[in-house]
Amino acid sequence: MKWFCFLSIFVISNALAGCSNFDSNEQIEVSPSFDNEFGEMFGVKEKIGIIGGQVTAGEDQKWMWHFWGEEVQYKEFSAVAINIGTNEEIDPIKIDYEMLIPTEDGLISHSPSQVMFPSEGIWKVKAYVDDEFFEEFVVEVFP
After folding, report:
1. Number of domains in the chain
2. What confidence tier does 65 reach under pLDDT thresholds 50, 70, 90?
3. Where is the signal peptide (predicted)?
4. Which of 37, 88, 95 is nearest to 66 (CA)?
């Protein structure tokens, strides 16, 4: 009988764990900062970079998005953000210019936006170009 109870609890807990978007063993780390010719950014070096300061929950903030690659020029971008702790999913972009404009060398395209995260925590941001997944990064949102 003890084995049956143990096995039942084990099966149920594994089933519930499977409902989460994130593996509890997955190491989620805030994306690092890096420098380039446009200044200090955070994100994924030579893939996607954001110029913007510390993010505070419930406050609008300006972000300058940078996407590497000629294939993103003059395309639209969007994002989905997921709070790692609560699985809350939002569109963090409140105002944007939609189209990615290339820099002089054409290797990086950029666009300004205004973002807002409703609550503190660690957020995984998934960036899309023309509705196709491009890259993801992790940001910490402070109270």
Report:
1. 1
2. very high
3. 1-17
4. 37
The answer to whether residues 83 and 118 touch, using CB atoms and an 8 Å cutoff, is no
CATH (domain of 39): 2.60.40.3830
Residue 131 has φ and ψ, to the nearest 5°, of: 65, 15
Tell me if 23 sits within 8 A of 129, measured CB to CB.
no
**End-to-end distance of the chain based on CA atoms, in angstroms?**
48
Asked if the structure places residue 39 within a domain, the reply is yes
Which residues constitute the domain of residue 110?
31-142
C-alpha Rg value of the chain to the nearest Å: 19
**Total-model pTM:** 0.81
As a whole number of angstroms, the distance between CA 32 and CA 83 comes to: 18
Tell me what percent of the chain is helix, strand and coil, each rounded to the nearest 5. Answer: 15, 50, 40
Q: How many CB atoms lie within 10 A of CB 46?
A: 13
Euclidean distance between CA atoms 22 and 27, whole angstroms: 10
Would you say residue 20 lies in a domain? no
Rounded Cα distance, 94 and 16, in Å: 33
Looking at residue 4, what DSSP letter applies? H
